[in-house]
């Protein structure tokens, strides 16, 4: 739409005494926050601008968002009353929507502002900036969207700019920043926080907005320190607004969800998505992501009692059987695993071969040998980690007519969740293998937007046997449901 349309739309919002049908005065949120800083400062310029921009972007503030904005976006003598703001709420509650409105309001009200969006990865930060640019363009705001290898940014007509950065101190080194959006603050390392302080030194009216789900005690050190300051009644250094379940709440009972999910019941709220997350995620992750409860770092990825309870050595090999293989770089090792059904929604997993301390080249001949012996209906390779041998194995699969699947990052996330859930519900059994018994208690999670996967970089042992096992299970279920794998080669 042309510029006059945008101007008329904005002027209508400014004149209206209500925003999207919602009162412009503070309302009581139906879900009581765990922590909420007192209102400080009488300047309402930024607060009102955030409300108006939420409407311009087509997402009027929800009650919990309006409460947070009213308390934390006030000004004192023209600068933010709370220079550092922490807003913590579970997934699927509207954190990203609030961040878009906050950034847009700041950029519009303060020309030539330099704004940075930091997330747990540079890719995630770029996605958030692109989503913001698309939303602004859809609303008729004449911004310039730049996407290149080196920079992703949105520039307003008044010179304000928001750009994406990864969690690295070098990413913002030398910059003078007016507004910092720290998305998923629980994942930010201490070195990034250290780089933010000098970046804001030349901007006395700057603000840092931290938006995140709960973190891991002892691991999410930056957010944990900020949260402790926000909870301290004797400190007003951090403005905080936090919603989540108390430690005494049974978060796995759906009847309790309306008591700690402030967006529960909204038209766009995906109830089935939360139910599926509860089924597939570990208790550890569901509590943190959806109940916004802080968890202990020592909690196991796969509890040993699940692993021991599902051990089953004496079982006849079933059909259809699939194979999966993976390789670990540091420490080096590679593994081949098998999976097959043996009852209604029951699967058995076995480690077919594991060679620690060696790179993946031996996998080519060994996959062929194991496949000739076990006659699999499909073979899955663990994507980029086996790139050095995947092409040759895939070519061989084409020649003999075996469907081949190259696992994506989303497959690795799904496989990890399925294995955990299968062991928890005893729908999966497994044979005995020292390499598996050694790796299971030492697994580390790597969170992502889709969920989590096993983290090879942070795991101190070779976890290729576990990854191969999980991919074999995923592929076996996939084949049972569709009689094919999602990525299939042509038959010879």
Number of continuous helical runs: 15
Biggest pleated sheet:
9 strands, mixed
The oligomeric status of these chains comes to single chain
CA-based gyration radius: 25 Å
**Secondary-structure content class:** alpha/beta
Beta-strand level of the residues, as a percent range?
Answer: 15-25%
Span from first to last CA? 54 Å
For the secondary structure, the number of strands is 23
Task: Give the overall pLDDT as a whole number.
Answer: 85
Regions with little confidence, pLDDT below 50 for 5+ residues: 1-29, 486-492
Strand order of the largest sheet: 3-14-6-12-11-7-10-9-8
Q: What's this model, at a glance?
A:
This protein has 492 residues and is of the alpha/beta class. The chain is built from 15 helices and 23 strands.
Summary keywords:
492 residues, single chain, 20% strand, 9-stranded mixed β-sheet, 6-stranded mixed β-sheet, disordered N terminus, disordered C terminus, alpha/beta, 15 helices
Could you characterize what this model shows?
With 492 residues, this protein is an alpha/beta fold. The protein contains 15 helices and 23 strands. It has helices spanning 3-15, 45-56, 63-72, 95-109, 122-138, 190-199, 221-231, 271-280, 283-289, 304-309, 363-374, 387-400, 409-424, 434-439, 464-482; strands at 18-19, 22-23, 35-36, 75-76, 79-80, 84-88, 114-118, 144-147, 152-155, 161-165, 179-183, 207-212, 216-217, 239-242, 295-296, 322-328, 333-343, 346-356, 378-381, 404-406, 428-430, 445-448, 451-454. The strands form six sheets. It has a nine-stranded mixed beta sheet with strand order 3-14-6-12-11-7-10-9-8, with helices on both faces. Helix 1 crosses helix 2, helix 2 packs across helix 4 (95-109) and helix 13 (409-424) packs across helix 15 (464-482). The protein is elongated. Residues 1-29 and 486-492 have low confidence and may be disordered.
């Amino acid at each position: 739409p042309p510029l006059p349309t945008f101007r008329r739309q904005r002027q209508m919002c400014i004149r209206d005494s209500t925003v999207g049908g919602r009162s412009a005065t503070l309302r009581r949120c139906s879900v009581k926050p765990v922590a909420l800083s007192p209102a400080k400062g009488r300047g309402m310029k930024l607060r009102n601008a955030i409300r108006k921009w939420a409407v311009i972007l087509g997402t009027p503030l929800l009650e919990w968002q309006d409460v947070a904005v009213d308390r934390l976006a006030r000004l004192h003598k023209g600068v933010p009353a709370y220079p550092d703001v922490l807003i913590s709420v579970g997934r699927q509650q509207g954190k990203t929507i609030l961040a878009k409105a906050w950034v847009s309001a700041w950029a519009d009200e303060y020309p030539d502002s330099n704004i940075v969006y930091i997330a747990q990865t540079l890719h995630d930060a770029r996605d958030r900036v692109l989503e913001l640019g698309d939303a602004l363009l859809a609303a008729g705001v004449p911004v310039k969207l730049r996407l290149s290898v080196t920079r992703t940014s949105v520039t307003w007509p008044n010179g304000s700019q928001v750009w994406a950065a990864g969690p690295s101190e070098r990413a913002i080194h030398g910059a003078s920043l007016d507004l910092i959006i720290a998305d998923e603050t629980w994942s930010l390392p201490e070195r990034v926080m250290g780089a933010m302080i000098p970046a804001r030194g030349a901007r006395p009216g700057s603000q840092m907005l931290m938006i995140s789900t709960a973190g891991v005690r002892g691991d999410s050190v930056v957010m944990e320190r900020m949260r402790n300051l926000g909870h301290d009644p004797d400190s007003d250094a951090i403005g905080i607004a936090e919603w989540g379940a108390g430690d005494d709440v049974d978060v796995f009972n759906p009847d309790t969800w309306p008591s700690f999910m402030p967006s529960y019941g909204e038209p766009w709220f995906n109830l089935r998505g939360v139910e599926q997350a509860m089924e597939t995620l570990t208790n550890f992750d569901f509590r943190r992501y959806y109940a916004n409860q802080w968890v202990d770092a020592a909690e196991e990825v796969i509890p040993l009692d699940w692993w021991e309870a599902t051990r089953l050595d004496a079982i006849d090999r079933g059909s259809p059987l699939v194979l999966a293989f993976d390789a670990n770089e540091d420490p080096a090792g590679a593994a081949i695993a098998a999976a097959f059904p043996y009852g209604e929604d029951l699967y058995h997993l076995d480690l077919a071969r594991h060679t620690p301390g060696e790179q993946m080249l031996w996998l080519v001949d060994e996959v062929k040998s194991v496949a000739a012996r076990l006659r699999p209906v499909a073979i899955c390779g663990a994507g980029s980690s086996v790139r050095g041998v995947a092409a040759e194995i895939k070519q061989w699969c084409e020649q003999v007519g075996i469907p081949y699947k190259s696992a994506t990052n989303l497959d690795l996330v799904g496989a990890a969740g399925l294995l955990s859930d299968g062991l928890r519900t005893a729908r999966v059994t497994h044979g005995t293998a020292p390499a598996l018994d050694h790796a299971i208690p030492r697994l580390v999670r790597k969170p992502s937007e889709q969920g989590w996967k096993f983290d090879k970089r942070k795991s101190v042992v070779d976890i290729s046997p576990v990854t191969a096992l999980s991919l074999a299970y995923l592929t076996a279920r996939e084949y049972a449901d569709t009689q094919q794998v999602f990525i299939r080669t042509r038959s010879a």
